[in-house]
Amino acid sequence: MVRHDVVVVGAGLAGMRAAIEASRYGVDVGVVSKLHPTRSHSGAAEGGINAALGNAGEDDPQKHTFFTVKGSDYLGDQDAIAVMCEEGPGDIYELEHMGAIFSRTDDGRIAQRPFGAGGAPRTCYAADITGHVLLHVLYEQLVKSGVTVYEEWFALDLVTDGERCVGVTAWDLVRGGVQGVEASAVIMATGGLGRMYRGTTNAYACTGDGMSMAWRAGVPLKDMEFMQFHPTTLKSNGVLITEGARGEGGYLRNSEGDRFMFNYAPNAGELASRDVVSRSEQTEIDEGRGVDGCVLLDLTHLGAKRINERLHGSRELAMDYAGVDPIEEPIPVRPGSHYHMGGIDTDVWGHTLMPGLYAAGECACVSVHGANRLGGNSLLETVVFGRRTGAAAAQDVRRNGSGGVFSPSAAAIAERSIGRMLDTNDGERPHVLRQELADAMYDNAGIFRSAEGLEACKAKVEELRERYDRGVVVQDKGRDFNTDLIQAIELGSMLEMADCLVTGAIARTESRGAHSRLDYPERDDEAWLRHTLAFYDEGQVRLDYRPVTITEYEPAVRSY
Amino acid sequence: MQVTLKIERYNPEADESRQETFSVDVVEEATLLDVLDVIKDEVDGSLTYRKSCRMAVCGSCGMRMDGAAVLACKTPMRPVVEAGEVPVISPMGNLPVLKDLVVDMEPFWAKFRAIKPYLDDGGEEPPVKEWRVQQEELDRVMTEALCIQCGCCVSECNSMEADPDFLGPAALAKAARFVNDVRDRGGKSRLEIYNGPHGVWDCTRCYFCNQRCPKGVHPRDAIAKVGAAIYQEGMHSDGGARHAKVFVKSTHQTGYLLETHLVPETVGPVNAIKEIPFALRLARAGKVPNPLKPHKAKKLDEVRKLNKLIESQEQATLEAANAGPTRPPADPAQSKESE
Q: From the list B52, B99, B148, which residue is nearest A203 (CB)?
């Protein structure tokens, strides 16, 4: 049993930024993470981070706000978007002062390039390894701050005293055994859930654990049906090729060599928003103008020098995982599940509806991305709302002191449930269910959706949840470093979150952003300009809705 | 395609080691990590290894294939299969094994923490906006910034095998990333950490780290950069630095490396006396050249020419490095805009 004033679960960009900020308020901070911090998936972000610095052309936070609102297909809360866009530049400068190595303009300022649907060259970048650079810079600062990190502790459940969150239980992966982690404030920063889809850009760790912990504890999840498909992922294993490749001038071509994007987005072309580009690619592929299930990302005209300077990492990925050198020939790419817009419902300070529980980053939904996130806005969200959430949690702790009582039985309950999993000898192996889930989600809850497909998907998810509840077999019976056990628990999280996603998608009878219904092709503001809330109801998903906050920008037709 | 692996296994709870052979069918483009995944899913769920990003950026899956460190996710198996090989997969070296292919990374991170792994702002108030820094200045640390802390270099480090306290290639590459960052104010106090015992001078220059790094960080080159910075600061008193100086002097004077001079001049006459028994044992084994016989290379002038050439090249590098501002201007953006 350990205790800290503030406990952060997850140590990617949002989690580390929250921990660093909270520690600045003089409270005792602990971080619990199933991975060592630098192994977090934030490090895989390539292209960059948006902020209206105006270093590469006219820009201002209002413009950033407007294009983010438009990109969200008007589902984003405009007050939250304004906070992110106004505070963003300050956070970028702070990262730079911490030592982040941003690429530079000729006069030594932070360089910026255009990203899809941004309306200005606003994306700051460190070549094409921006997430890596930021993740390591924040880890450096975390080490400097002296915050305690419990590496390779897998958070299992939130612990509440009936009203407020008082900590978490966690499985110590290295030594085995459940640990109680008591806290006056718990910040969830556990990242996304892309692994429930076949062909994802996401790391193996992105299994929605934090969202499912919050959901089971009664905290609503917001806009879960919105899953972004990134237009340029490699066929073999879904590895991401950055949007920066198109930001630097890359073309998308079909089998006939045409730059087809101008048929779908006459003005923006390749740099339309991600949902638009992904749908266009899929349409090309479906209508027989694909190349082996892909379209072609052509960078050859950029030349070796530019590719090596700005897209070195992407070139390496293409060579390693597609056997293609982009200097010589185009890269076959296809849309792949990439970023989950929904998550734990929070306000602009990371508060959830449960006192003592906060959330930030991809596991949270403030909401700044609405129905479709713009490239470069996710890294920004992690640092802006990571910082704000860390500050809010620390201030609340200082104001209110410690909260409720952490029942010692919490760890014992968790220990028993793990024991049951380890004792199960008859049943299916988790990977069988995982594969069926990934196929069902990709086939039926993907880029294009319909009532028929979604209902089939829901039935499949319910069936898989039943099979899971009957008990899956963990073959590793040991307690030390049992990754077989962890993968089985992660599967449980994914199944619950898939249920929330699909249930929300069935109900939303319109097309908005990344949620594209073939049977309801139009956006329906009258009925659906509202957030979906998914509640836990005796193991099932109960939906409710909440209005979208609109301040300045009335919903308008969205075209690129 | 059919892939066969021999995997070194270790079960900590039974304290039991064994080698086990697995053979599985995988897709053509499968990486080593993909093969391990298939084994874990379909053959033996207790096979244990770390993984996460599967795109060579998170640094989780460092391990050894036939004794050489690799990232499993960056290692395609097709060439191995086509060569008809059955590789041995084992955990990384120089770190304690926890279970199967998983090592305890804490000693690795302890060294990371020991090198002051963050930008030292010297307590100065930063500018309102960004530091003005030229791209070329940042390029000087970009190679080291590629490091993902996977530990492959440490696994292969010969010096660390002899001295487990050696800071090692990963931590020292991280050090170089700050030493050559124009925004860093660490100066001498930072370099003192790297100049001390178990620091840069412990490297034996075997270059295995350069060879095995999966991200092209070139840790040995980074160590050389740190050593150069130490020299530039005039910090010559450390045994390691003196050793390097005597090395150069000896080759300059004789064209050879004279071990009999190297020891006394590096550690001093008093400490050299302590080494006499060791020297005698070496002599008995025929490992010491006759100290009385003059040693001089036949073509000494060629050795000296080489020395000169290297010196002039290094001088040019130093001058180029010093040409840029050593500190970024406080905030030209602000002052310009207020004009």
A: B52
Are B326 and B208 part of one and the same domain? yes
pLDDT tens digits along A455-505: 999 999 999 999 999 999 999 999 999 999 999 999 999 999 999 999 999
**Which percentage of chain B shows pLDDT scores above 70?**
92
Structure tokens at A115: 């990203």
Does B119 touch chain A if contact means CB atoms closer than 8 Å? yes
Listed residues B103, B127, B162: the one ending a domain: B103
Interface predicted TM-score (ipTM): 0.96
Question: What is the token pair recorded at A400?
Answer: 């209110």
Chain B environment of A484 (Cβ under 8 Å): 40, 45-46, 48
When pLDDT is cut at 50, 70 and 90, the band that residue B318 belongs to is low
Instruction: Encode pLDDT of B268-300 as tens digits.
Output: 888 888 888 888 898 888 887 776 776 788 888
Which residue range forms the structural domain that includes residue B28?
A: 2-103
Tell whether the torsion through CA atoms of B251, B256, B258 and B262 is positive or negative: positive
Say whether pLDDT at A138 is over 60: yes
Residue at B278 is within a domain:
no
Q: Which of B59, B129, B146 lies nearest to residue A39, judging by beta carbons? A: B59
Give the closest-approach CA distance of B264 to chain A in angstroms: 41
Residue B322: band (very low, low, confident or very high) from pLDDT cuts 50, 70, 90: low
How many CB atoms are closer than 10 A to CB A279? 20
> Same domain for B67 and B113?
no
Cα separation, B3 vs B54, in Å, equals 19
**pLDDT above 70 (res B328):** no
Please, which pLDDT band fits residue B334 given cuts at 50, 70 and 90?
Answer: very low
Helix-strand-coil split of chain A, %, nearest 5: 40, 20, 40
Rounded mean pLDDT of A119-147?
96
Q: Does B26 touch chain A (CB under 8 A)?
A: no
The model's pTM: 0.94
Indicate the DSSP class of residue A200: B
A-B contacts (CB, under 8 Å): 162
Angle (CA) A188-A189-A191 rounded to 5° is 125
Residues of A in contact with B55 (CB under 8 A): 44, 237, 239-240, 317, 321
- Distance of alpha carbon A323 from alpha carbon A331, whole angstroms: 9
pLDDT of res. A154: 98
| B64 shares its domain with B123 | no
Give the pLDDT of residue A135: 98
B42 interaction partners in chain A (CB closer than 8 Å)? 429, 431
CA dihedral B239, B241, B242, B244 (to 10 degrees): 120
Nearest to B120 by CA among A97, A79, A329, A417: A97
| Whether B118 and B51 share a structural domain | no
Q: Please list every residue in chain B whose beta carbon sits closer than 8 Å to the beta carbon of residue A316.
A: 56
pLDDT score at B185: 96
Judgement on whether residues B148 and B118 belong to the same structural domain of the protein? yes
Q: Looking at the 3D structure of chain B, how many domains does it have? A: 2
- Residue B85: inside a domain: yes
Look at residue B249 and tell me if it is in a domain: yes
Residue corresponding to tokens 């413009």: A63
Residues B31 and B11 in one domain: yes
Q: List all residues 6 or more positions away from A34 whose beta carbon is below 8 Å from its beta carbon.
A: A152, A153, A154, A155, A173, A205, A209, A486
Residue B269 domain flag: no
B283 in A contact zone (CB under 8 Å) = no
Considering the candidates A17, A274, A373, A434, report the single residue annotated as catalytic.
A274
Q: Is the peptide bond before A314 cis (omega within 30 degrees of 0)?
A: no
Domain boundary among B73, B103, B133: B103
Q: Does B78 touch chain A (CB under 8 A)?
A: no
Could you tell me the CATH number of the domain that includes residue B8? 3.10.20.30
Same domain, B79 and B112: no
B321 and B208 within one domain? yes
